Amino acid sequence: MSSTSRMAPLLCLASASPRRRELLNQIGVPHEIEPAAVDEERFPHEPPRDYVLRLARAKALKVRPHRPAAQPVLAADTAVVLEQAVFGKPRDRGDACAMLAALGGRTHEVLTAVALAADGGVATALSVSAVRLRALTQAEQSAYWNSGEPRDKAGAYAIQGLGAVFVESLTGSYSGVMGLPLFETAQLLESVGIPCGPQARRGA
User: Fold this and answer.
1) 130: which strand partners?
2) Hey, CA dihedral for 66, 72, 2, 110, is it positive or negative?
3) What are the sequence ranges of the domains in the chain?
């Protein structure tokens, strides 16, 4: 729990991601955690944007029945996309190195969908960012894998970690590439009366 208050936080985060927790803490939103287990297999020919929106919505709806009526559930899903191919978390060293080789020297999209399930239904938002990684040598790919950072990251890199040194450019949302676009998230939360940023800090 992120609040010292005796009252339950106003929000439940349907994710075990420490990065999403850190981002919610950054904008002053107390929350509880209940990870959502959903089938993340992509439908045949499903557009990547539809895919991440569907998963974010499914995660929010999975957890919503378990929470108090007055506690909305926030969920998110992120995909790294290159020419309609979706790059998930690498299976092993070879898979990670193949991803980094494919992404290097090219611009890819990072899609992060956010869903908020509340009494009024489910509202969604989508963040689309363009990221260009420089080309990595095989030695750099191996060294990066050995750092442990790529193992649980979509696309086998983390913009907020060691992988930042490979990022040539970013157009869009830095927090969205991390896994929770704060602009879109704040809009969803404020629509149901949960203050964010300076307003949240003022009420603390």
Assistant:
1) 109, 171
2) positive
3) 11-203
CB 56 within 8 A of CB 97: no
119 catalytically annotated: no
Per run of 10 residues, the mean pLDDT along the chain (length 204 residues) is 50 95 95 95 96 98 93 96 93 96 97 94 97 97 96 94 97 97 97 90 56
The backbone torsions φ and ψ at residue 114, rounded to the nearest 5 degrees and listed phi first, read -125, 135
Read off the pTM: 0.91
Which amino acid does the sequence have at 190? E
Can you name the CATH fold of 11-203?
A: Maf protein (3.90.950)
Q: Which of 39, 50, 77, 92 is catalytic?
A: 77
- Per the CB < 8 A criterion, the answer to whether 79 and 50 are in contact is no
